[in-house]
Amino acid sequence: MKVLFVDDEADIREMIEIALMVEEDIDATFASGGAEAIEILKSETFDAILLDVMMLPPDGEEVLRTARSLPAHKTTKIVMCTAKTSQETEQELKALGADRVLHKPFKPVKLAGYLRQLLGAE
Fold first, then answer.
1. pLDDT per residue over 46-88, tens digit each?
2. Which has the closest alpha carbon to 113: 74, 95, 102?
3. Phi and psi, residue 110, nearest 5°
4. Are 111 and 22 a contacting pair, CB within 8 Å?
């Protein structure tokens, strides 16, 4: 499965990269912010996109809107990663087009299983 992980915090990207590099069935691409993610989304397709919500503009919500406006990503599974745990936040993100909301902090070692379950590969 091909996955794009977007987070502006280098240490988080590095932890996720370490956790996913041992997974033979996961091809992960990493972006350090919204602008980079949007450029990648214009030229590549993914099975799943994981977006940090709170980044410098363009933030995760803007990347989500952009992804959903691109024909290649209308049905891509998009997971928003956020420390905000309110039901209201989750509903807002899903209304914008997110398939799921993953609350931070999450365990990087469990991410591969989460992705397989999300994509029905388990």
1. 999 999 999 999 999 999 999 999 999 999 999 999 988 889 9
2. 102
3. -95, -5
4. no
| Domains, the chain, with CATH or none | 2-118 (3.40.50.2300)
Which tokens is 120 given? 């029905």
Place of tokens 């049905």: 75
* pTM for the structure as a whole: 0.94
> Quick one: 23 exposed, middle or buried, by C-beta within 10 A (0-12, 13-18, 19+)?
middle
H-helix or E-strand spanning residue 6: strand 2-6
Rounded-to-integer distance, Cα 90 and Cα 12, Å: 21
